[in-house]
Specification:
Order of helices and strands: EHEEHEEEHHHHH
Largest sheet: 4 strands, parallel
Structural class: alpha/beta
Strand order of the largest sheet: 2-1-3-4
Radius of gyration: 20 Å
Distance between the termini: 41 Å
Shape: elongated
Length: 180
């Protein structure tokens, strides 16, 4: 494993973006969707992450070094050798997120894997996750033992189980499953 997959919460936090054009705009949109606040290099002292999206390789390297010198973790578009982290292609069924990464080897490959998975996974995955979160306390009361609770949930979520995540209707069955 070349990278440690993480989901980093950036809501309300400043994130530096250096660059213009499509690459930089894509980073800004992604940061905005995650609730982050895009800022320029002058605010780097308030940030933990930085994105560099410059076409000029030398300028990108210099910008990355400046941000790293200020303690930021940095991603440089199309330059995995300069990255502290890479961005996966994300299949989003909020709150379920599936990240497909190649450690910077090929963003295009990650994208096409995601596109195929999107056709296989039901839109209701997020609703199922939210329904399970809503009954977390009830699950603990119904199955007070952690191992028993995990086994019951594993059985319910298994293929053809009562809450099979691949079945669109499973999100609406959570309450009925607990009442069984």
């Amino acid at each position: 494993m070349l990278s440690l997959p993480l989901f980093h919460r950036i809501a309300g936090k400043r994130v530096v973006v250096i660059g213009a054009g499509d690459m930089a705009d894509a980073k800004r949109r992604l940061i905005g969707r995650a609730g982050g606040i895009c800022c320029g290099e002058t605010e780097a002292h308030h940030a933990d992450l930085g994105f560099v999206a410059l076409d000029d390789a030398r300028a990108a390297e210099i910008a990355a070094r400046r941000l790293k010198a200020q303690g930021l973790l940095v991603n440089v578009a199309d330059r995995p050798d300069l990255c502290d982290f890479t961005l996966p292609s994300v299949l989003d069924r909020e709150p379920v997120q599936i990240a497909i990464g190649t450690s910077g080897a090929s963003a295009g490959l990650a994208k096409h894997i995601r596109l195929r998975l999107e056709t296989l996974l039901p839109q209701s995955l997020g609703q199922l996750a939210e329904a399970l979160a809503a009954v977390r306390d009830q699950m603990r009361a119904h199955y007070p033992d952690g191992n028993q609770r995990r086994k019951a949930l594993d059985a319910a979520l298994s293929p053809n189980g009562f809450l099979d995540p691949m079945q669109e209707a499973s999100a609406g069955r959570v309450e009925a499953w607990l009442g069984r």
